[in-house]
Amino acid sequence: MASENNGIMMINGQNSLLVTLNKYVAAVNNMNSRIMIPSRLRDMEVTTETRPEISEENNNMALLPTVAPGTDLYNCYIMLNAIRAELINGESRIRADIEFEEETADAARKTAAAFTYHLRGLFNVLHKLTETANYLGNKYESDVGSSSGASLSSFAI
User: How many domains does the chain have?
Assistant: First the structure.
């Protein structure tokens, strides 16, 4: 559920895009505050006892849903930060040449590529919807405003 307060949308729903993006950015920020020396991740191994068990029903586009044994944690750290930077700054910083260990290389590259592809698609659709909303508002004001000869309030029907 969303409510509006002085033109600013307040998002209350757990499944909203803004809430999900905020949770991701907060998780990466938390990760960054806890990892003081990222290069030490190169020496760490993922074991079945320490990896998170995540099961999620989706359309199989999540190619790296859990941290698999043998995953290069340092490069995952780099990729997570690059995705965060792309979300915040709008600039793609995901490197296609990140050298993942052999068994995770394809999955990691596909995951990064799928993220970039879908994020660009989402931005394109949102830009088109924004243009449509601006057009409708302008069209309404120009047509109704010119016929009434008075300025319109946002409460005019």
Answer: 1
Span between the terminal Cα atoms of the chain, in Å: 25
The percent of the chain in helix, strand and coil, each rounded to the nearest 5, is 55, 5, 40
For residue 101, give the 3-state DSSP assignment: coil
Evaluate whether residue 53 is within a structural domain.
no
Local structure of 52: helix, strand or coil: coil
DSSP structural state of residue 41? G
- pLDDT, one tens digit per residue, over 74-118 is 878 888 888 888 888 877 766 554 555 555 556 666 777 788 889
pTM: 0.64
Residue 138 vs residue 58, higher pLDDT: 138
Range of the domain at 73: 10-48+63-145
CA distances from 35 to 28, 56, 77 (A): 10, 27, 10
The helix (H) or strand (E) run that includes residue 61 is: none
Question: What secondary structure does DSSP assign to 119-156, as a single string?
Answer: HHHHHHHHHHHHHHHHHHHHHHHHHHHHHH-SPPPTT-
